[in-house]
């Protein structure tokens, strides 16, 4: 049986850092592990202000009203109401087993438990598998351009 557990900052190996493509280790890390305690996948949660600070793409998409689809008021998603999924990765040999869905649902549960109103994330327009996952989990599009889609899920 695969289980969800926190990934402590000191457990973040260079391999995980490379898979997530980040140098900044702020945030909360969750992993899914198999019965042998092998990591099958990871997700990184950060608050919205950290997301805007760390990721220029978020600022680019979020600040352009021409790309907005829904909830277009200034600063609609903010540190007080939104938790941001910065990175999601499932090891290739563990894909198509529902781990991404488990991690995403765990994040939504954590957001609810902490009192957030939304889970938000950004994906590339060419990442069709991710879009199918997010659409299937009930995420909605906040804004998009030719390269990126900003999704949100009301909690």
Features:
155 residues; alpha+beta; seven-stranded mixed β-sheet; 29% helix; globular
Q: Would you write up a description of this structure?
A:
The chain is α+β, with helices and mostly antiparallel strands and 155 residues long. Helices cover 29% and strands 31% of the residues. The chain contains 5 helices and 7 strands; from the N terminus they run βαββααβαβαββ. A hairpin with a 5-residue loop joins strand 2 (28-33) and strand 3. Helix 2 (48-54) packs across helix 3. It is globular and about 50 Å long. The two termini are 27 Å apart.
Task: Give the helices and strands, then pairings.
Blueprint: E1 3-7, H1 14-20, E2 28-33, E3 39-47, H2 48-54, H3 56-62, E4 82-90, H4 99-113, E5 118-124, H5 128-136, E6 140-144, E7 148-154
Parallel strand pairs: 4-5
Antiparallel strand pairs: 1-2, 2-3, 3-4, 5-7, 6-7
Helix pairs in contact: 2-3
Q: Within the largest sheet, what's the order of strands?
A: 1-2-3-4-5-7-6
Instruction: Write the element-wise H/E pattern from the N-terminal end onward.
Output: EHEEHHEHEHEE
Q: Roughly what percent helix?
A: 25-40%
Class computed from helices, strands and strand pairing: alpha+beta
Distance between the termini: 27 Å
Question: For the report, how would you describe the main beta sheet?
Answer: 7 strands, mixed
Strand fraction:
25-35%
Separate helix tally:
5
| Mean residue pLDDT | 78
Low-confidence stretches: none
Based on DSSP secondary structure assignment, what is the total number of beta strands?
Answer: 7
Radius of gyration (CA) equals 15 Å
Coarse shape: globular
């Amino acid at each position: 049986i695969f289980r969800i557990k926190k990934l402590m900052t000191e457990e973040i190996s260079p391999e995980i850092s490379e898979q997530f493509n980040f140098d900044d280790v702020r945030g909360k890390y969750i992993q899914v592990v198999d019965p042998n305690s092998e990591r099958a996948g990871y997700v990184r949660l950060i608050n919205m202000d950290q997301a805007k600070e760390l990721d220029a793409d978020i600022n680019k998409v979020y600040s352009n009203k021409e790309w907005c689809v829904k909830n277009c008021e200034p600063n609609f998603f903010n540190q007080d109401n939104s938790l941001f999924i910065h990175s999601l990765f499932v090891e290739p040999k563990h894909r198509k087993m529902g781990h991404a869905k488990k991690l995403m649902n765990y994040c939504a549960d954590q957001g609810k438990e902490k009192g957030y109103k939304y889970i938000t994330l950004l994906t590339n327009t060419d990442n069709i598998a991710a879009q199918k996952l997010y659409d299937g989990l009930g995420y909605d599009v906040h804004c998009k351009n030719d390269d990126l889609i900003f999704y949100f899920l009301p909690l």
